[in-house]
């Protein structure tokens, strides 16, 4: 009996294996869809018609159709957007970006050059007025009056005043175009064909010995025959020693400065300088 059951199970198992083998070798064919053969897309199903019983006050909002584009625009954009005109854009830029509209005329090289030149000429004119006032008082003006006047004016006007005095001595002068970055030289003069550099200091106290040392380097760097160190302060002992050691520095201070400002003949050791007429001088500007 058991043997018969085993044989039956083996036959059943063999039948199952045989059917599986047939499905592998001969798979069943599936018919192609008519929509694919005709390149036609099936339209989506239409929604079921809403029954009258389904429409109520509770679900009416949920079932109401979406607002159209026209309704949406009318609701959210009540006022149409207008394109900004050119005048509006310029007004906006001028209000918020004043510094970015156009380059300032004062920043152009030509305007800066004219502005510096105007300032330069104003200082020269004011220096001439101060010099005329000092010389119109008396040729015997006392030292404190002249020194106090020179200390009150600006350093730039004082530089121009000294160069104007050199010009009135009949020397050919060369003014600097700028007051800063001049390398420690405030002007140049030609005396009998020899070059002298000028440094002007408006002191109210003792002068600095370091300025004397720096001026010696400036004279050597320019290859000048000598230099005038003009100041309104007090010359200390160390500064005097430095000046004595150098045979190229000509100190102009105290009474010598007063005489120079008042137009008296300036004397340089070893050189006789005759005073010429005012029309005989030449003036240049170092650009």
UniProtKB/TrEMBL annotation:
<keyword id="KW-0472">Membrane</keyword>
<dbReference type="GO" id="GO:0009307">
    <property type="term" value="P:DNA restriction-modification system"/>
</dbReference>
<keyword id="KW-1133">Transmembrane helix</keyword>
<keyword id="KW-0812">Transmembrane</keyword>
<dbReference type="InterPro" id="IPR011856">
    <property type="entry name" value="tRNA_endonuc-like_dom_sf"/>
</dbReference>
<keyword id="KW-0378">Hydrolase</keyword>
<feature type="compositionally biased region" description="Polar residues">
    <location>
        <begin position="49"/>
        <end position="66"/>
    </location>
</feature>
<feature type="region of interest" description="Disordered">
    <location>
        <begin position="37"/>
        <end position="66"/>
    </location>
</feature>
<keyword id="KW-0614">Plasmid</keyword>
<feature type="transmembrane region" description="Helical">
    <location>
        <begin position="6"/>
        <end position="26"/>
    </location>
</feature>
<keyword id="KW-0540">Nuclease</keyword>
<dbReference type="InterPro" id="IPR052906">
    <property type="entry name" value="Type_IV_Methyl-Rstrct_Enzyme"/>
</dbReference>
<protein>
    <submittedName>
        <fullName>Restriction endonuclease</fullName>
    </submittedName>
</protein>
<dbReference type="Pfam" id="PF04471">
    <property type="entry name" value="Mrr_cat"/>
</dbReference>
<dbReference type="GO" id="GO:0003677">
    <property type="term" value="F:DNA binding"/>
</dbReference>
<keyword id="KW-0255">Endonuclease</keyword>
<dbReference type="InterPro" id="IPR011335">
    <property type="entry name" value="Restrct_endonuc-II-like"/>
</dbReference>
<dbReference type="GO" id="GO:0015666">
    <property type="term" value="F:restriction endodeoxyribonuclease activity"/>
</dbReference>
<dbReference type="InterPro" id="IPR007560">
    <property type="entry name" value="Restrct_endonuc_IV_Mrr"/>
</dbReference>
<feature type="domain" description="Restriction endonuclease type IV Mrr">
    <location>
        <begin position="150"/>
        <end position="260"/>
    </location>
</feature>
């Amino acid at each position: 009996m058991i043997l018969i059951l085993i044989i039956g199970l083996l036959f059943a198992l063999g039948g199952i294996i045989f059917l599986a083998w047939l499905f592998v070798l001969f798979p069943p064919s599936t018919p192609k869809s008519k929509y694919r053969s005709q390149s036609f897309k099936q339209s989506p199903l239409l929604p079921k018609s809403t029954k009258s019983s389904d429409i109520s006050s509770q679900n009416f909002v949920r079932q109401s159709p979406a607002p159209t584009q026209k309704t949406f625009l009318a609701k959210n954009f009540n006022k149409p957007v207008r394109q900004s005109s050119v005048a509006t854009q310029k007004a906006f830029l001028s209000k918020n970006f004043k510094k970015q509209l156009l380059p300032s005329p004062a920043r152009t090289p030509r305007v800066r050059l004219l502005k510096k030149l105007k300032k330069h000429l104003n200082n020269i004119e004011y220096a001439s007025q101060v010099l005329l006032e000092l010389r119109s008082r008396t040729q015997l003006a006392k030292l404190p009056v002249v020194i106090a006047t020179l200390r009150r004016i600006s350093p730039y006007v004082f530089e121009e005043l000294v160069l104007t005095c050199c010009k009135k001595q009949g020397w050919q002068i060369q003014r600097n175009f700028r007051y800063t970055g001049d390398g420690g030289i405030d002007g140049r003069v030609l005396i009998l064909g020899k070059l002298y550099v000028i440094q002007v200091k408006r002191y109210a106290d003792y002068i600095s010995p370091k300025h004397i040392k720096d001026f010696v380097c400036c004279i050597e760097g320019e290859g000048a025959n000598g230099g005038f160190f003009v100041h309104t302060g007090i010359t200390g002992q160390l500064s005097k020693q430095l000046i004595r050691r150098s045979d190229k520095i000509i100190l102009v201070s105290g009474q010598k400065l007063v005489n120079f400002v008042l137009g008296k003949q300036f004397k340089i050791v070893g050189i006789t300088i005759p005073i010429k007429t005012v029309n005989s001088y030449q003036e240049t500007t170092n650009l």
